[in-house]
Design a protein that fits this description.
The chain is an alpha/beta fold. It has 14 helices and 12 strands. It has helices at about 40-45, 65-80, 100-110, 125-145, 160-165, 165-170, 180-190, 215-220, 230-245, 260-270, 285-290, 295-305, 325-340, 345-355; strands spanning about 30-35, 55, 90, 120, 150-155, 175-180, 205, 225, 245-250, 275-280, 315, 320. The strands form 3 sheets. An 8-stranded parallel β-sheet has the order 9-6-5-4-3-2-1-10. Strand 4, helix 4 (about 125-145) and strand 5 form a beta-alpha-beta unit. Helix 3 (about 100-110) runs parallel beside helix 4, helix 12 packs across helix 13 (about 325-340) and helix 12 crosses helix 14. It is globular. It binds propionyl Coenzyme A (1VU), ligand LL5AMS7Z and magnesium ion. Propionyl Coenzyme A binds near residues 61 and 196. GO terms for molecular function: lyase activity.
Length: about 375
C-alpha cells in the first residue's frame, strides 16, 4: 500500500496529477453498446444527451472473433462523436487475464484518451488489479500527453473481489466507482441460479405453520421472496461511501420484464447506489426515472430543511419526528436533485414546480 504522503503523486513521469475528489457528474444510466455491432453503433450519436454515460463494451457479450472490431469501432465512434457536456464516454475493457486487455488499454488511451472518462475493469479480484491498471494508465497517459487522468471503475463480480471490496475501493485515487456484476458473481460463488441479476422465486421465507391444520392450509401459507443481492450491494455501498467513490447496480438481463427491472433498480437506489447499467434502449428511461429523486421526495426534503431552521433540535412534521439525522438524509436528496437538475431541464422544471415559491401559482 502506498504511503498517504504519495497517494496523490502521479505514477509515471509526465502523467497528469491524480484527482483528489471524484467528479460527481450525473451517471444514473450507464448505457452499454457493442461497438462491433453496426446497428447498435449507428444509434450511439443519437443517444448523446439522452443518457449520462455511453459505454463501449469490449468484454463479455462481444464475440471472441469481434474483439478487435469492437476496439476499432469504439475508437472510430469516439473520434467521430461530440459527446457534449451531459454525456460521458466510458469503456469496459476485457479482463486482465485475457489476451485483449493490454491492447485495449494501449489503443484506447493513446488513440482516444482525451475523450474517455472512465475505464471499467471487469472481474477485479483485489487491489493488485487496480494497482496494475493504475500504473499502466499513468504510463500511457504520459505517452499520449493527456492532461487529465482517466478514472477507473471496478466490477464486483468475483467472490474474492467481494471479500476485498474495501481495499479495491481505496486502491487508487483513480477509483471512480464500482458496479455489482450479479451474473459472473453468481457463477464464481457457485450460486444455483441461471439469470442475469434480479430476484429468484426459490429464494424465499415462508409464513410459520398454524398448528393442527390440514395440508390444504399448509399449501396456502404465504411466502415472501427475498433479495439475493442485498448483502453484496450493501457491502459495496459501504465500501464506496467510506472511500468517497460511487456505487452502481449492474445488468438486469430480463429485458422484457420492465417492472422487475424497475424494482431491482429502485432497491439499489434506496440502498445508496447512484446509477445502473442499461443493456437495451427500453431500460434507459427506467434508470433515469428511478435514480432521480421524485419531485415529491424533493418537496418533502425542502419542508424538513425549512422546518429544521438552524439544523439542530427536533421538530414534528406531519406527525413524525425530524432531527439532525433526518435533516442530513433530506440534504443528500436535495444535493442530488440540484446536481441532476443542473443538466436535466425536465427534472429542473419538475422540481421547481414543487418548490414552496411556486405553491399556489395558477390557482
Ligand atoms: C451479463 C453480464 C454482462 O456483462 S451484461 C453487459 C454485456 N451485455 C450487453 O452489453 C448487452 C447489450 N445489449 C444487447 O446486446 C442487445 O440489446 C440484446 C440484449 C442482445 C437485444 O438485442 P436485440 O434482439 O437486437 O433487441 P431489439 O430487437 O429489441 O432491439 C431494438 C433495436 O434497438 C437496438 N439496440 C438493442 N440494444 C441496444 C443497445 N444496447 N444500444 C443501442 N441500440 C440497441 C437494436 O439494434 C435494434 O435496432 P433496429 O431497430 O433493428 O435498428
Ligand atoms: O458483468 C456483469 C455481470 O453481471 O457479470
Ligand atoms: Mg460480468
Amino acid at each position: 500500500m502506498r504511503s498517504p504522503k504519495d497517494f496523490f503523486a502521479p505514477l509515471a513521469v509526465g502523467a497528469p496529477a491524480p484527482l483528489t475528489q471524484v467528479p460527481s457528474r450525473p451517471s444514473r444510466v450507464i448505457h452499454f453498446f457493442d461497438p462491433s455491432n453496426e446497428k447498435m453503433a449507428a444509434k450511439v450519436p443519437a443517444m448523446v444527451g439522452t443518457v449520462d454515460v455511453l459505454l463501449g463494451n469490449l468484454e463479455d457479450a462481444v464475440k471472441a472473433d469481434r474483439k478487435e472490431a469492437a476496439r476499432a469501432g469504439l475508437v472510430a465512434i469516439a473520434k467521430a462523436t461530440d459527446f457534449g457536456e451531459s454525456t460521458q464516454l466510458w469503456t469496459r475493457i476485457n479482463s486482465l487475464d485475457s489476451p485483449w486487455a493490454l491492447d485495449d488499454l494501449t489503443t484506447l488511451v493513446t488513440e482516444i484518451g482525451d475523450t474517455l472518462d472512465v475505464v471499467m475493469v471487469p472481474k477485479v479480484q483485489g487491489p493488485e488489479d487496480i494497482h496494475y491498471v493504475d500504473r499502466l494508465l499513468a504510463q500511457l497517459e504520459a505517452k499520449a500527453g493527456l492532461t487529465r487522468p482517466i478514472l477507473v471503475h471496478a466490477i464486483l463480480e468475483t467472490a474474492r473481489g467481494v471479500a476485498n471490496v474495501e481495499e479495491i475501493a481505496g486502491a487508487s485515487p483513480r477509483m471512480q466507482g464500482m458496479s455489482l456484476g450479479p451474473a459472473d458473481l453468481a457463477a464464481d460463488r457457485r450460486m444455483k441460479t441461471t439469470r442475469v441479476g434480479g430476484g429468484h422465486p426459490g429464494y424465499l421465507v415462508r409464513q410459520d405453520p398454524p398448528t393442527g391444520v390440514d395440508d390444504a392450509v399448509h399449501a396456502s401459507r404465504a411466502t415472501y421472496q427475498q433479495d439475493l443481492w442485498h448483502y453484496t450491494i450493501a457491502r459495496m455501498v459501504d465500501a464506496c461511501a467510506m472511500h468517497g467513490i460511487f456505487p452502481y447496480y449492474g445488468p438486469f438481463g430480463d429485458i422484457a420484464d420492465v417492472v422487475a427491472c424497475e424494482d431491482q433498480f429502485r432497491n439499489a437506489f434506496l440502498l445508496g447506489c447512484v446509477g445502473t447499467w442499461s443493456l437495451h434502449p427500453v431500460q434507459v428511461e427506467i434508470a433515469k426515472r428511478v435514480f432521480s429523486p421524485s419531485p415529491e421526495d424533493v418537496a418533502h426534503a425542502r419542508r424538513v430543511v425549512e422546518a429544521m431552521g438552524d439544523g439542530t433540535g427536533a421538530v414534528m412534521l406531519d406527525g413524525k419526528m425530524e432531527d439532525d439525522a433526518s435533516l442530513k438524509q433530506c440534504q443528500v436528496m436535495l444535493e442530488l436533485a440540484e446536481r441532476l437538475a443542473a443538466t436535466d431541464p425536465v427534472l429542473a422544471q419538475a422540481y421547481a414546480a414543487q418548490s414552496p415559491s411556486s405553491e399556489g401559482e395558477g390557482s
